[in-house]
Every structure is written in C-alpha cells, then in structure tokens.
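Incident log entry.

Two folding requests arrived from the same account within the same minute. Monitoring flagged them as a possible duplicate submission, but the sequences differ. Recording both here for audit purposes.

Request one:
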Amino acid sequence: MIAKIISFSAHNKFLVILLALAAIIGSFYAIQKMPLDALPDLSDTQVIIVAKWNQPPGVLEDQVAYPIVAALLGAPRVRAIRATTEFGISLVYVVFQNGTNLYWARSRVLEYLSKIIPSLPKGVKTAMGPDATSLGWVYQYALVDDSKKLNLSQLRALQDWHIRYQLQSVPGVAEVAAIGGYQKEYQVKINPRKLWGYHIPLTRVLKAVSKSNSEAGGGTIEFSGREFMVLGKGYLKGIKDIEEIPLGRDAKTGTPILVKDVAQVALGPARRRGVGELNGLGDAVSGIVIIRSGENTLNIINRVKEKIKEILPSLPPGVRFVPTYDRSELISRSIRTLKETLF
C-alpha cells in the first residue's frame, strides 16, 4: 500500500500539490474560526429557571419551586433537577445528560414550563437564565466617578439604562449583569387613622397607585382634514405625581380625596444591590459580561472593549471604566506559551 501511494504521488505531482495547498488553506481558515479560550468547559449542560414572587421561602418553595420541579421530571434526557429558594426568588437548575445540545435543552424546558405556568399563583414571574455555561463570565468592569458628583444610585441607573443595553448588542454576548449600587424607590406610608376617617380600604390605595403608572390610548380624532392621536399621559415621574392620585370623593363635601390626604409619599432608602469592594475601589457599581455557549471568547472580549471605547464619549464627565477581570490576558498568555512550545 505504501509503494502504491508513493507511485501515485510521483506520477500525479500537480494533484498532490493542489491537495497540499487546499489542506494549508483549510488549516488557516480553521485557525481563524477556532474558538479560543484558556479554560476547558467541563460544565454540565444545564438550564436555569428563575421564579420571582414576593413571598417567604417556604411559600415560594411549596407553591412555585416544587410544581416546576415536578413538571420537569418527565423531560427527555434530564439527569438531575436542583432548586434553591430565598426570600422572593427561587432558582431551578435542570441538568441534562452529557452531550445534549444546549439550545435543544432550552427548547424542551420552555415546552414543559409553558404547561405549568398557568397553574402557578398569580403574581409569579418566571424566566430562563442566559444561554451560557458556568465559564461564560469572561469580563468584568467597575464604574468609577472621579468627579464625585454621582452617587451609587446614579451610577447604577447609568449601568442599568445606558451601558448594559449597548454592551448586550455586541454579537455573542448573552447577558450583562450588574452588581452593586442602589435602586431608587418611592414609599407610600399610609396613615391608618386618616384612611379610616375617609372610609377608604387599603386595597383601593394599592390599586390606585399601581393602575396610575400607565399610559392610555384614546384613538384618533379628525379636525380640518387632519388626524390627531389622543393619548392619556399617566407615567409617574416623581413624588408629586403619586400624591395627586385620586382615591375617590368625600361623601360630605364632594371634594376629591388624593393619596396625599391619607398617606405620606417620600423617596425611600434605595435598596442596596450586592455592594462590595472591588480591587481597592471601595463601594462601586460593577458590570459582568457573560458570553453565549460555544462562542469565541477572545474575539468577543475584543468586541466588548471596542464597544466600551464607543461608549466612553457619552458618559458623564469624570466617569470611567476600570477593568477588574479580563480573561483575554490569560488566553493570550496561553496561546503564547503554546507557540513557544511548538516552535
């Protein structure tokens, strides 16, 4: 067999050269498209289900986590199901057999989840975690305000409503999670005596506040050959808007009863979200970039860095990015070590 191969190669030199060139071109193309990472992904194929409900862990475990776990037990290729519950949130981890395609697993979970969602208690919000693995955390940054003009609440708002959406638009990024900072909230502190004096139940105040924060469309009207849209502005923008929400009329005088007549509205202490010290920066707002499964880690990190350069001019004066974790450095060193060893 060896003699025949040598003879064939000697009599077909041009064909052998073409095949060698094709192999070189194919190898070069494969190197360009090869996913590069410094760490092997040995994690299981798993899908995370997030269920949120403002209830104690025991109630959340019995009425939400248990029904979801029971419904997913019959899903194909499922190896194990685990659930953890805290106040207001429950996480269900569905682990599939080795070799299962992640997106096939997500579609199966979504199929079984759609059957159980209608039977869950009212107010439960369920969602699936990002299509990433445990090694998807590839880049992290902190927002630092050198001018000291922005507090942690404003930095968190900048991260949630400006930076996050731009970084999520980078191809290959599955999610940009935020850690730290404060989230602003308004508190309506009811005065029970005033509420009883107006004979207004507490449920009416709750419904009035929740329904007042919305827009309403009223259709269109024609005037002088033109068509005008009718829109009811209803979004709450501050304390005064909440105070002016009507609750009804006084039975004796007929005057409107407003929220400010029975309650005190104030900007409450914002909820702290995992504030921690980052590399000596103190309390800061941090963003975590998580990539999709199977993506080229090095390329995506470079794209994220390019996007950050585009975002910098639009940030408030004094605000800057401080990288706190960058896996591309480890990948580059690993590639350099491999090249030196091969040479």
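Request two (distinct sequence, not a duplicate):
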Amino acid sequence: MTRKVLLVTTVSWPSVPRYAAGFAAAGCKVDTFAPAGAPVTASRYIDKHYVYEAFTPISALRQAIEKSNPDLLVACDDRAVTVLLRLAESENGRFRALVEHSLGRISNYAEMLSRNDSLAAMAAEGVRIPLTYPVSNEDELEQRLSQIGYPAVVKSDGSWGGEGVIVARDHDAAIAAYRRLANPPSRLRNLVRAVRRRD
C-alpha cells in the first residue's frame, strides 16, 4: 500500500524538493504544504500542493491535512514544527494523533525547542557540544565572556534558520550583539517586515 506524506514547510528553501524526491523514491505519494512559489511546488514528485498561509497557518494546515489525508507529516523547518505543535495543542482527535505519530510526544518539545535545554540534554547523554551558557543580562554576559573568550557566538533562544545568531570577535561586538538580540524590533517594524515578506 502506497503511503501518503505531507511535507510541511513555511519557507522557500531549496532542500525541500530533495525530500520530495527521496520519499517518492521510497514509493510514497507526496503532497506539500508550502508558501506559494516555493521551489518544492515545481517538483515533479509532488502530487498536490496546499498553500501555507502566513497569517492563518493553523487553519490552512488543518484544511491541507483534511484534503491530503496523509499517513505522515514531515516538518521541513523549525517554524513548521511549531505550526504542527500549535495544531496538535488545539485538537484532541485525529490531528493531534497524526502530529504525535509524525513528530513523537508533544510533551518533549518544550525542551527540544529550547536551544539551551536541548544542548544540555545532549551534553548529559555524552554528546560533545560547544561551551554554552544562558545569560539574562549584560553582567552575566560579561562573566561568561571572560570564561570562554573570543570569538564568541551570541544566539537568541527560539531562533532558527541562521537568524538570531551573531559572531562577536571582541567585547564591544559581543555587547552590541546581546543588545540587538535582547531587544527585538518593535511590533510596527515586525508588522511591516511581515507584510513585505508575506510572512
């Protein structure tokens, strides 16, 4: 029996068509939930495409799942994971069961999506990770920088896809990076950027 896979992506990354090709090679039928014009929408391996709606992602995903009726949901980016988790949290029936079948236990994701908590869990299992410290103010940052030196990578928790990451080569750059990441843009700027990017 052919399995149906729904690739879920919220970005236009060129890697997603390769996922489609891989699942098709394994004998699966492949649908996609992706932004309009994303490279995966042009893939010959896609049977049907459902449009990711940036401003109404949960209802758009619910409709895509109803129409596609997949056996497996495959999240292709971190925000897709978040959208799937939000859908599961708003449901108790079939959708939640499908998300848990696809991603695993929903309760595990709070730790997994936290950069610091997930790295700490990996370190506890013996995986080598870079020295990583959470900081909540500039004094803590100064203390940690004196321990690790430069260059240092300053990251905001919950960011992904290369955003929220700044390499600091000296003290002034580290402080500037922390201030930039600790003070997110205003709501107005976020709204303007969201409308411009349609995201």
